[in-house]
Amino acid sequence: MKSLRKTSRWLIKLYWMILIPLLFCLAFFYIFILKDLPSPTRLASNALPQSTKIYDRNGTLLYTIYGERNQSFIPLSEIPKNVQQATIAIEDKDFYRHGAIDIRGIVRAAYSTLFHQNLQGGSTLTQQLVKNTLLTPERTIQRKIKEVILSFITEMLYSKDRILEMYLNQVPYGGTSYGIESASQTYFGKRAKDLTLPEAALLAGLPEAPSTFSPFGAYPELGKKRQERVLQKMHEQGYVTEKDRDTALKEQLKFQKISSVIRAPHFVLYVKKLLEDQYGKELVEEGGLTVTTSLDLPTQEMAQDVVASEVAKLRNLRVSNGAALVTNPGTGEILAMVGSRGYFSKETDGNVNITLQRLQPGSSIKPINYAVGLIKGYTAATPFVDQEVCFPAPGQKPYCPKNYDGRFRGAVQMRYTLGNSLNIPAVQMLKLNTVESMIATATAMGITTFKEPENYGLSLTLGGGEVRMIDMAVAFGVFANQGYRIDLQPILKVTDKRGKILEEYKPPKSPIFGKKVLPSGIAFIISNILADNGARLDAFGPTSELRIGNKPVSVKTGTTNDYRDNWTIGFTPDLLVAAWVGNNDHTPMSGIVSGVTGAAPIWHDIFENLLEGKTVAPLLQPSTVVEKFICMPSGLLPPPEGTPERCPTRKEFFLRGSEPKLVDRGRQKVFIDKSTGDLAKPGQTDNVEEKDEIIVEDPLNNQYCLTCPHPSPSPTPGP
User: Cβ distance 234 to 240 under 8 Å?
Assistant: First the structure.
């Protein structure tokens, strides 16, 4: 009994002698190994940050948005076999035959660690995946133990194919590029599915030491030797023939230029801002969105070249910058956005996107004013008296507008006042319309910068209010769309990393899907005037840059009084081009810069390129519009055939019901000032005589003697 108690005490001691160290070891193992062990479920692609890709409408990558990592997930089925085989050949040739660890590799690594104090590889692809994704890069035995444990768990959770897929999507390939898709775009400017054998071999060799083997690094020859080793391993393991290996070794690789990793930069950053406003910065930088935009890269590159080359020709006219916007007015799609002559130009702050800036439009805003006039019942045949005039301004000096050339043309019908961009009739039109009405219509048409009407005066119709080019494109699109407003649509489709569609724009087949903001007849008449080369002959001549052959293209220019901004905007039903030249610091250009020497050549060259080999359908005349013969310049109906001194006539379009009802009666009795030969002033009785003259009266009750002598001042600046 005594012996039994003695044995029992010894066994208890032994128990505690074993249990306490065991508990201590388990506690140590938990605290230092298992406590902070990350979950292998984080390896799944949906749990990792992924880059957002922005593409043009044809699937060409424009830019990749990311936070710290440029990383995109693609399924294994989209990764070429040569990429998979090259990776396995150089990193883990028995990947599909061993488990989480390679015993021979572990023994080799342990021997090196214990006897040479050198921690080294022998890791399987599974271990490398765990190390790069879940663990820190420190090289310690503690981290190695974690790596082995996590590798076993990973092999239990995922198939070999899934592990290879995760590895190829998450391993670092140099710089901020993680995963084969991002690496392919970074180094070769193409998608991973399009990689050739020599390209795949080079990329497969990078993960071991991305900085050392990078073709963009200090020793690109090391990357070439690494590629040769990968191809040799692929041959030894039966993945490629000797002939394929030798052919791949001889191929000269063409690398993507680092400077061209962003295409259409102004447009891309505009889209990025829209995405962040819609989805938040975190989702845009890490959510793996795929964004298909409306941009057409060939059109963009053509427009960029035109802007750069034409601005270069204007340097001696104190012009340093230019911009252009190309849209499809019927769908609102932006086909090109050139925000400056060069995004990376420090000389002119090239990163500033002029198409989004607030600038004065000059006379390019006039069509909206005249559209309001048509709404109020005036017509394209309404005569305006273009003569010296001043408008009272409460508390200020009277406003006395001048034409661009300093001349007065007397009685001029609306078609020709708009076509020749005459300032005095435009101000008279706004006086009749009211500033409030013009702002209301402009806002409805898409101008977002006109706010309180009391902040503007009659100079609004000459460009006295700031606008944005993108808004002008929407507003002019209303004319092209038969009165329907269609807002700009730079984004066609956005999908998340799971392929779920977050938004999609399906362009309408007809503009009737837009919002009706102008009667179709008014949109037609304004468009018709702007396409009428004869209506602008006096200011621009018969063969100006505003003509695109004999194609019916509507166009309007604009130059501010101080020569700080010069515009040209024109359209067909399918295309709209807006162009601008000036200086980012708002310094004036030379006074020689005008509607035909500044932005017009840019506009013309872009439009001519876009319409080459294409026909342009004539403007569609709505049923609400009728065509009538009218007298020049009174705008009244011509008298019957055979009437003495019958007026010269022409055809004009009218909204049905607004056609003239009165007949032009020719000469009438008026009082003439003997000293000037012109009409006597109201109330004048001295030095006058009564004569029979042809008189035209405009809507502001200004009378003009058509048959009297009218001396004109000498011309000054151009249109």
Answer: yes
Burial of 208 (0-12, 13-18, 19+ CB in 10 A): middle
Distance of alpha carbon 61 from alpha carbon 56, whole angstroms: 7
10 token code pair: 């010894």
pLDDT per residue as tens digits for the range 618-645: 999 999 999 999 999 999 999 887 676 6
- Percentage of the chain lying above the pLDDT 70 cut: 87
If you ran DSSP here, which 8-state letter would residue 534 be given?
A: G
In angstroms, the CA 300 to CA 709 distance is 53
CB atoms within 10 A of CB 603: 27
User: Which DSSP string do the residues of 151-213 spell out, in sequence order?
Assistant: HHHHHHHS-HHHHHHHHHHHSEEETTEESHHHHHHHHHSS-GGG--HHHHHHHHTSTTSHHHH
CA distances from 193 to 80, 82, 182, 257, 632 (A): 6, 10, 12, 20, 68
Burial class (CB within 10 angstroms; exposed 0-12, middle 13-18, buried 19+) of 570: buried
Count helices and strands (H / E) in the chain: 22, 22
Residue 13 — φ and ψ, nearest 5°? -60, -45
Q: On the CB side of 517, how many CA atoms lie within 13 Å of its CA?
A: 27
- Domain map of the chain by residue range? 1-35, 69-260, 625-705
Spatial CA neighbour of 133 closest among 36, 40, 33: 40
| Residue of 489, 700, 491 whose CA lies nearest to 62 | 491
Alpha-carbon dihedral angle through residues 258, 263, 269, 274, given to the nearest 10 degrees: -130
The predicted pLDDT at position 106 comes to 60
> Do 199 and 205 contact (CB within 8 A), yes or no?
no
Q: Are strands 177-178 and 70-71 parallel, antiparallel or unpaired?
A: parallel
What does the block give as tokens for 88? 């396995």
Residues 6+ apart with CB under 8 A from 115: none
Structural element, H or E, at residue 485: strand 484-485
Q: Please report the pLDDT score of residue 26 as a whole number.
A: 45
- Rg of the chain over Cα atoms, rounded to whole angstroms, equals 38
Please give the sequence-ordered ranges of beta strands (E in DSSP) within 370-409, or none if there are none: 383-386
Give the separation between CA 548 and CA 604, rounded to whole angstroms. Answer: 7
| Residue written as token pair 């310094």 | 587
Angle (CA) 437 439 440, round 5°: 65
Fold of 69-260: Penicillin binding protein transpeptidase fold (1.10.3810)
- What is this structure's pTM? 0.82
28 pLDDT tier (thresholds 50, 70, 90): very low
Under DSSP, is residue 411 helix (H, G, I), strand (E, B) or coil? strand
Residue pair 658/379 in contact (Cβ under 8 Å)? The answer is yes
Those residues with Cβ within 8 angstroms of residue 439's Cβ, 6 or more apart along the chain or in another chain: 450, 453, 456, 460
Do residues 545 and 313 make contact, with C-beta atoms less than 8 angstroms apart? Answer: no
Contacts of 614 (CB under 8 A, 6+ apart): none
How distant is the alpha carbon of residue 438 from its chain centre?
Answer: 28
Q: Residues 463-486: pLDDT tens digits?
A: 999 999 999 999 999 999 999 999
